[in-house]
């Protein structure tokens, strides 16, 4: 096997990785109303990244005057984030008060001073919303009684103004819709990633007056249990800004999600439970309460508002609710549809209740204009006639709060929620339960075998490792997601692949297709081609599900006692809209509820640690606003510290992917860099004979052959014969960082691989994908080391290649589209470390020694799946 060999790296003259011969570019076309010319730049061009705006002149002491010293702020920040109660906080401050001396001392002496400082800071640093949250009362009549409910809300426009006018965020805002294209050798393909790269943002800018800029909102609402037994609940509304990139928008910093509302929860009425009048009451209260939150943007949505932004430029901004992020139940509340048991249960389209499993068809979409006409017409009829008309469309007789907002259509803003629809929905509560039930039909031994094979799955960064799954109840969407990725590889051999086992075969095919669809939906960037492939895969999944439903029905006829599962549920149908939403709003992470669900945890801790458990909403929201102010001060302090550090060292203080991939090669302390490869965990030098009596001769012969081949293809490079003695030294490394460019989004990622006889107490030899002159192959790392040859250092890996020919592909592997590879028996080879493309998670074939399956859907970036399909 001939390996691509790099030029030798002299000790004193590190070489850089050569540039790609193919020029790849990104072309950005801006909306015509922006009057901006088309821009073209190279892939990963650092000059295209937003430049940071300095705020040092404005905030030389960001903690002042709210806190007298920096130490005061640091201590108050700890109290706020840790959730210490007032009693313990006071005791700590008393200790500091006794110990204080010298410059920069802590001046706080009691917790009440900390609370006062946070209140002063909120008045100064969040000028548009100094009171943080306001309380209003919603009054409705029900059964002859007036019912009053408190709603806590922060003016949405004031919160957005804080972001827009922030100098720190100014360079990160995108004010114009874009159509982004990847260009390569004369061809171009459109890319969808952030909201402004998709169609809804483009359409929004087309609807507003020329010169106006859309200011997009993502609004999320959901209940959360604050107490362990659920007796105390909170009803959160969280806002995010679509004009900011996902790294900021979905983060925990100043530009991330903020709680902007706390809705009332209507107590259940035993006499009216599930009755239309009581349900309509709850919907009315929800929309009246939500109206308090959006009231500040209603007028601006029609007329726009001129605002000086953080970069000093005045812009005419039109607020638009571009995305509504919610689970299915909450979507029904937002859209005022009647839910799963209605004739038309989908809040987005008019699919009939008995067609929810059909993933091959599209149905007429709901629109705000059409829905308003129906509701107005129903209200002009008698009560019975009106209810009959509304039931034909699955609607409720309530005014929708989002109809107040111009350029906002709630039925288009409602978005596919991958967390609840896929991870905990179609898979977690349906496919996974069916699979467990099917395996249990084979007996206890099969159940135990599934758990044993899950334990045997090799560890992979970011992937949960399970000791057992068959008898554990999961409520975590991330764990459900990881089980779905692993399941086929860990359990495909449990279900017999025979003609008589039609139900099991169709179930496995459906599971495999589902994981591929879910992987496509998880991509952070999509091209038109990937979306088309994803739609075809969704069609396959629908066909596999129908085959499973049909075979299950046939099987149930032979077993009268068997219960036939009903697969007509809304979360199955939601997949129909998944790829439409990518084209309309960008990648699924833009509207997935997962980032918002993560905010539930801190609020629960605040409830448990920092409230008196009475009238908790204002207490929690006061602390939430203090954290918002704390983040702002912390950002200013960090920027000052970083600027101070850079002025001294003139070097960046944080490791980045770009630092790993500059192509600089050579020894750096105990780390060796070889282009996109960085070797870590250096061991003491060892003589070659310690690795075997013939190891030095094999290595010398291989180096001679590779360097001779390289010389033949490189003008000016002379062939050389390498001679190594048993006493020559090599340096072993037991960890590798591989920087690779993802084929999904052309961004750089890092795989951290290990080759160690003892990694956390266990032997670990990770798998890799290797580039050769003949293509790609998989291999297992056995040894990683550097060797010096005539003042040149080479990084080398000893691997077991997994490219032995397979005489006949098994029918099961073909139908499940599994990539199965075969190891050469007792064969090892040397490769240059720089020929490693990336790491790869592989699992052994439990039925046949020496065979492995590539777990192509486990990689969270999606890159491995695309590469495997090229190999196949």
List keywords for this structure.
25 helices, 21% strand, globular, Plavaka
Model description:
Pfam families: Plavaka. InterPro entries: Plavaka (IPR041078). With 872 residues, the protein is of the alpha+beta class. Helix content is 37%, strand content 21%. Strands 1, 14, 15, 16, 17, 18, 19, 20, 21, 22, 23, 25 and 26 form a 13-stranded antiparallel beta sheet that branches. Strands 4-5-10-9-8-12-11 form a seven-stranded mixed beta sheet, sandwiched between helices. Helix 3 (111-125) crosses helix 21, helix 9 (368-379) runs antiparallel to helix 10 (383-391) and helix 13 (444-455) crosses helix 14 (477-491). It is globular and about 95 Å long. Mean pLDDT is 88; it is low at 1-21, 648-656 and 658-664.
Chain-wise SSE layout:
Layout: E1 9-10, E2 24-30, E3 39-42, H1 70-82, H2 86-99, H3 111-125, E4 134-142, E5 145-153, H4 156-164, E6 178-184, E7 187-192, H5 199-207, E8 212-225, E9 233-241, H6 246-249, E10 258-262, H7 276-303, E11 305-308, E12 314-325, H8 328-335, H9 368-379, H10 383-391, H11 410-413, H12 418-440, H13 444-455, H14 477-491, H15 502-522, E13 526-527, H16 528-558, H17 570-573, H18 578-585, H19 594-597, H20 600-610, H21 616-649, H22 657-660, E14 666-668, E15 671-674, E16 677-682, E17 686-687, H23 695-713, E18 729-741, E19 748-759, E20 762-765, E21 767-772, E22 775-789, E23 792-801, H24 811-816, E24 819-822, E25 829-832, E26 836-840, E27 842-844, E28 851-854, H25 863-871
Parallel strand pairs: 8-12
Antiparallel strand pairs: 1-23, 2-3, 2-6, 4-5, 5-10, 6-7, 7-13, 8-9, 9-10, 11-12, 14-15, 15-16, 16-18, 17-18, 18-19, 18-22, 19-20, 21-22, 21-26, 22-23, 23-25, 24-28, 27-28
Helix pairs in contact: 3-21, 9-10, 12-14, 12-15, 13-14, 14-15, 15-16, 20-21
